[in-house]
Amino acid sequence: MPWRAKLDGSPASPSYFSRRRRVVYRALGYAVRKKRLGANPLSTAAHPEGWTPSEAPDDALDYRTIGSPELVESMIETCRALGTTQGARFRAFYGCMYFSMMRPSEVAALTLSACELPEDGWGWLTIADASTTAGRAYTDDGQTHEHRGLKGRTRGRPNSRARRPSRRIPAPPELVAMLREHVARFGAGPDGRIFRSERGNPIQASTWWQVWQKVRAASLSPGQLDGPLMNQPYCLRHAGVTRRLNEGVDEATVAAWAGHSVEVLRRIYHHSVGGQDEILIARMDAHRRRSLWGRIGDGIRHRAASAGFARHPLTPPRFGSPQVRGRSALVMSGAPSRIRTCAHGSGEPCSAGL
Q1: Please, what are the domains in the chain?
Q2: Are 157 and 147 within 8 A, CB to CB?
Q3: pTM score of the predicted model
């Protein structure tokens, strides 16, 4: 297939191939429904013998692209020194992507009425729309930007009777101060949009991309510029999600704030949560050095009995977990809080008491 290779002949990435093939497959499926084609040539039955699909793309985030909170916040503050007004216009724009984990299209469609910005403390941002750059040839009104609903949800249109999905995101005091300063200096558009160009038009994707490259050049060292560290504006959103996970916010809440599922959150960010390797290695090393831990079963019981330890039933007052209630296990002084129990002869698998 021609889209499996780049223009220079080198193979395309699996994600590029999957995205292009999905679009062509749906277009051909539409032709089949309109009776223009008898069958979809990309269906499984039409594949030639020996054809194999490309390997599934790895969606995991490259942790090298994520900067520390101190670095990210300093890069956002660098916007103040870029030009007369251009950099200052994007300080709060990038702040929304980082502190509230918003997509660029969602920030571009943010309105003043959707913001709760108190003088002190945390605020809230309610987003229900996105402004994507589709191109004039692909919009109904001939405009460059298309007004649509949130990604992965039903399309939100003005003056629609249908209830539009939305999500509410907390805004830390740093972001609240940025937005209040931005509104006081630049105001809001007739439609309520907070972020606009100097001529009052919606912000182009190429503009916030070019401004970010200037921010990166002014903030990073030459060695860091050669690497992938914060190499694109979307890294701000990734850094924001990673920060919330490292701060201990549960996965379901972070996924709801970021606007995707928990499954997507785990698939993309499972490598980016830092500080866990050392903790897990310390736990494993403590168990490895404990002389009373051996093979699960009679080996543990025999060694415990020879050491003078007794077996006690796990009663509800001592152990509240329903997984281990009523079973027998070893109770030893200095044993860890997570105890593995196994009902031998019952055919049940071993389970971990939490």
Answers
A1: 2-46 (no CATH), 63-269 (1.10.443.10), 288-352 (no CATH)
A2: yes
A3: 0.65
